[in-house]
What we know:
The chain is of the alpha+beta class and 295 residues long. Helices cover 46% and strands 22% of the residues. It has eleven helices and eleven strands. Strands 1-2-3-10-5-8-11 form a seven-stranded antiparallel sheet, with helices on one face. The protein has a four-stranded antiparallel sheet with strand order 4-9-6-7, with no helix packed on it. Helix 3 (130-144) packs antiparallel against helix 4, helix 8 (228-246) packs across helix 9 and helix 8 (228-246) crosses helix 11. The longest helix has 20 residues, at 176-195. The chain is elongated and about 75 Å long. The model is unreliable at 172-177 and 288-295 (pLDDT under 50).
Amino acid sequence: MDTNFFTNKLVASNRVIYTPAAFARNNLIYLQEIGSLKAVSPHVSSRSDLASYLFFLVTDGSGILIYGGQRYELRVGDCVFIDCRRPYSQGSSEELWSLKWCHFYGSNMAGIYSKYRERGGYSVFHPDNVNAYEELLDDIMRTASSDIYTRDMHIFDRLSSLMTKIMDESWHPESKAAAGLKRNILDVKDYIDTHFQEKLTLEGLAEMFYIHKSYLARCFREQMGVTVTTYINSVRVTKAKELLRFSEETVEAIGMECGIADRNYFARMFKKIEGVSPGEYRRMWRNEGGGDEKR
């Protein structure tokens, strides 16, 4: 994939316009375009209804972004993450800016972006370590320009790393209030991790950690991505899977050890999460090929 140098009266840019394979387009987060630019003169460009997500960072100078009815003043180190299906405008100020950017898409990107916004992610943020983002973009640029046969998978890996870093920013650790809340939610998570054998309820956890029940439910879901109950069940099932594979305990005993005394309820919950019963899971992973469940 060739690197294209482009210059006009507005910008001088270095970019790769990328066409992924059909497999990548149908199954992965895939690259559309990546590059860097230096503004030659102040300008504003506008787009809308573009099936793409855009991430860019300001490496020099300053400019503006107009998106979602808001105007943002951008400075060096600012990062932008937006859904280009919505109208947006961007442009350099008199202090001519330089940018590094990446357009990408995928069938699951709408859900990822929705989760980012649900967690409180901003259209514009200023990370503590902007160099990490720049290095990722440079790596994607090199990969897109290479002849690697598995290039689409490497790009997917790097774009996934970019998404992970962006998602990490969505809780804004520079905010003392947000940091305190994040610590409280992590304390609840840690308590569940070590006390899953006990009777755990949303009400009981809220009372224990002095957090209103509804507020705990909402904030836990935003930060952890699942409800409190779903997380408790996930921890219990994870422990159950370990015991099913590496112990000779009965299914009923394992359920009790994981905090669920009702064997039938344990079996239903396990199958709902794993798609198979506890006994079937044990046989599959031990390759026993049949036989009755241990009781």
